[in-house]
């Protein structure tokens, strides 16, 4: 019999697979979840129902419409109280006193006295009105009965029946009885419906005034960016502007600042309101906080404009509808109206729209022009649109220099007398000599007999900063620089001469520049322009260079326009455009005219002319052929007036022909047997005569005619 050995110590080696005992693991069943108490489940359901968006919308709607009715009643009661008492006048008096405007306070006090006197007169009339009313009723009734009886007598005589005498009176009694029955039938329902109609009227008043808390208003009103501009919103925005004196004055006003505001007027795609500031608050304190004011009005900074009208201590706020300034304006009338023509003397160029949405048109008559701004903001398009309109006046002549050379002015080839395109120093030299030729033409006109009328000559230079910054100098004995801003600068001095005297003889200087500085746009040049316009700029100092101190101090702020986003938007200072009274500038959103549309417009302009030969370079050679030059400037036109030939010759070669008079031209043509003659009362040069003279000269070396 074997015995089992029991080991009393625990083995430290793990058992092998063969010797390991089988272990059975018993997993007990999970305990059943504890039931959620009924009060918890009920609370969750109630919470879900209460916080559901439908419930919230229902509560907001109920609160909104209930408050519309309640607050509408308050508004109507307030209006009725103001109409029956002098409380309105008393509020205005307190507000005027708080604002330090004693004249306004005296005026409102005088109005209050007149109101009280009129009210006393009406109350005294009530003492006599019952007796007067009774007499009136008695007299009216008697006259009515008499008239009816008289009508009955007439009817009785006509019909021969005596009973017809009372027929009109009987019919009137029956009609009155019918009215009484109608009133008896309608009176009951009217008493039932009347209160509901009254509540509906009060609800309508409250709804129009949004007389409910913001949380109860509809989502499209509560969450919209740019809520409607109301007096309370404007006053609150001014109160929270961070100007201590303004905030204190508003709190002290009996009407909470409403008396500061003029009427809120619809003005184009926004509203406009004049704000009379209280004593101790300067207009520039409000101007300096434009961004904060805009944000207080739930607008972007570019959607609020602050200008200073003529009235003392007054700022004019124009607040755009939210997002309205980002919408494009319509096409130019130059594009949509193929029959449009121009009148340099009396007409105005359709340039765009002002912030009110009204058409903005600019008079170009005897006004030098300067347009500036940052690069790629629409300067060339804005300048070109003015030239396109003026080209539809066939009397206007153009000398053009495009110092960018990108083809923006290529459509004027065949329309401008001179068109130079390119950015190099050589192009600057050509443009400078073109402007100097215009100076020579100006001097010739100035020396003409008094009363002589000259056609307008527009000297246009785009990217003029290239000319001012050009380092090139003359050759030979003349070492004068072409660029610069000193008295020896040829371009600078030529522009200054035109600015000084060109307006008197219709020789006008138009310039477009980029990113103005004192170096690329000298002070004397920019201040010589009658019309100054600026697109978006970087700093206020640049805005002052572009528009002048007066315009900027009056609220002009092209430096606050958004580069890229406000492309084509100009701030204009000029007496040639309609500017609201008291303002020194106006903001214009210009029409965009692309190259294809511009080409179509210039084609119409060319059709109005006999033909213009465009020079693409200034001939600076010492040798010149007068007869050939005359043939070149006459071009394809059958005949050209002698004064136009002289102007074109001066533009072609100022050194050779700048001092020419009619006698010089006549001498050359008479020698070639192609003398000028009179047509329709003016002296002209015939193309055929000049061509025949050139052919004869080239054929046998003489200028004699066949």
Automatic annotation (TrEMBL):
Q: Which Gene3D superfamilies match?
A: P-loop containing nucleotide triphosphate hydrolases
Q: Where is the signal peptide?
A: none
Is Protein transport found in the keyword set? no
Q: Which residues form the FtsK domain?
A: 352-544
Would the keyword Protein biosynthesis be found if you checked this record's keyword annotation? no
Q: Which PROSITE patterns match?
A: FTSK (PS50901)
Query: Which InterPro entries does the annotation name?
Result: FtsK_dom (IPR002543), P-loop_NTPase (IPR027417)
Keywords, A to Z? ATP-binding, Nucleotide-binding
GO molecular function, a single term? ATP binding
Q: Which residues bind ATP?
A: 373-380
Name of the protein described by the UniProt record = ATP-binding protein
Name the species this protein comes from: Streptomyces griseoincarnatus
């Amino acid at each position: 019999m074997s015995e089992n050995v029991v080991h009393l110590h625990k083995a430290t080696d793990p058992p092998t697979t063969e010797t390991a005992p089988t272990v059975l693991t018993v997993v007990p069943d999970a305990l059943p979840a504890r039931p959620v108490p009924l009060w918890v489940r009920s609370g969750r359901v109630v919470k879900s129902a209460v916080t559901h968006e439908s419930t919230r919308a229902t509560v907001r709607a109920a609160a909104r419409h209930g408050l519309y009715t309640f607050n509408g009643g308050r508004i109507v009661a307030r209006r009725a109280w103001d109409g029956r008492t002098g409380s309105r006048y008393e509020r205005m008096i307190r507000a005027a006193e708080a604002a330090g405007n004693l004249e306004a306070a005296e005026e409102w006090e005088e109005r209050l006295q007149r109101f009280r006197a009129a009210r006393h007169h009406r109350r005294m009339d009530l003492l006599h009105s019952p007796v007067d009313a009774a007499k009136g009723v008695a007299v009216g009734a008697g006259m009515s009965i008499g008239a009816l009886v008289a009508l009955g007598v007439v009817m009785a005589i006509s019909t021969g029946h005596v009973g017809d005498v009372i027929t009109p009176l009987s019919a009137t009694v029956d009609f009155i009885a019918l009215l009484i029955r109608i009133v008896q039938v309608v009176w009951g329902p009217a008493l039932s419906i009347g209160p509901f109609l009254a509540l509906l009227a009060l609800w309508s008043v409250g709804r129009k005034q949004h007389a409910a808390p913001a949380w109860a208003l509809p989502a499209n009103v509560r969450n919209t960016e740019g809520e409607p501009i109301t007096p309370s919103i404007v006053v609150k925005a001014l109160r929270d502007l961070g100007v201590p004196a303004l905030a204190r004055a508003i709190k002290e006003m009996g009407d909470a600042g409403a008396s500061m505001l003029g009427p809120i007027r619809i003005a184009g795609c926004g509203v406009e309101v004049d704000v009379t500031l209280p004593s101790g608050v300067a207009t520039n304190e409000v101007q300096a906080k434009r961004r904060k004011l805009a944000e207080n009005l739930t607008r972007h900074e570019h959607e609020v404009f602050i200008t200073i009208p003529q009235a003392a201590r007054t700022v004019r706020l124009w607040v755009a509808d939210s997002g309205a300034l980002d919408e494009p304006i319509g096409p130019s009338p130059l594009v949509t109206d193929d029959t449009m023509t121009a009148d340099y003397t009396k007409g105005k160029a359709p340039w765009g729209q002002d912030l009110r949405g009204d058409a903005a048109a600019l008079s170009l008559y005897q006004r030098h022009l300067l347009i500036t701004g940052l690069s790629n903001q629409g300067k060339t398009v804005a300048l070109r649109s003015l030239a396109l309109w003026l080209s539809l006046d066939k009397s206007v002549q153009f000398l053009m220099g495009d110092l960018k050379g990108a083809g923006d002015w290529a459509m004027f080839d065949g329309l401008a007398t001179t068109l130079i395109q390119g950015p190099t120093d050589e192009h600057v030299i050509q443009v400078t000599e073109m402007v100097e030729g215009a100076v020579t033409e100006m001097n010739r006109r100035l020396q003409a007999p008094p009363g002589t009328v000259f056609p307008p000559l527009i000297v246009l230079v785009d990217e003029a900063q290239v000319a001012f910054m050009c380092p090139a100098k003359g050759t030979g004995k003349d070492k004068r620089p072409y660029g610069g801003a000193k008295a020896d600068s040829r371009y600078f001095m030529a522009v200054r001469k035109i600015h000084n005297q060109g307006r008197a003889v219709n020789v006008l200087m138009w310039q477009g520049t980029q990113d103005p500085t004192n170096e690329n746009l000298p002070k004397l040049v920019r201040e010589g322009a009658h019309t100054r316009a600026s697109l978006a700029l970087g700093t206020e100092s640049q805005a002052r260079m572009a528009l002048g101190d007066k315009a900027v101090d009056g609220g002009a702020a092209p430096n606050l326009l958004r580069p890229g986003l406000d492309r084509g938007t100009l701030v204009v200072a000029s007496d040639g455009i309609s500017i609201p009274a008291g303002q020194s500038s106006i903001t214009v959103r210009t029409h965009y005219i692309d190259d294809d549309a511009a080409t179509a417009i210039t084609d119409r302009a060319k059709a109005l002319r006999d033909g213009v030969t465009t020079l693409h370079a200034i001939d600076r050679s010492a040798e010149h052929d007068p007869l050939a030059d005359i043939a070149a400037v006459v071009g394809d036109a059958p005949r050209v007036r002698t004064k136009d030939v002289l102007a074109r010759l001066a533009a072609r070669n100022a050194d050779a022909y700048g001092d020419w008079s009619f006698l010089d031209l006549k001498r050359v043509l008479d020698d070639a047997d192609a003398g000028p003659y009179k047509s329709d009362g003016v002296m002209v040069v015939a193309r055929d005569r000049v061509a025949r003279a050139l052919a004869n000269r080239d054929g046998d070396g003489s200028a004699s005619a066949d």
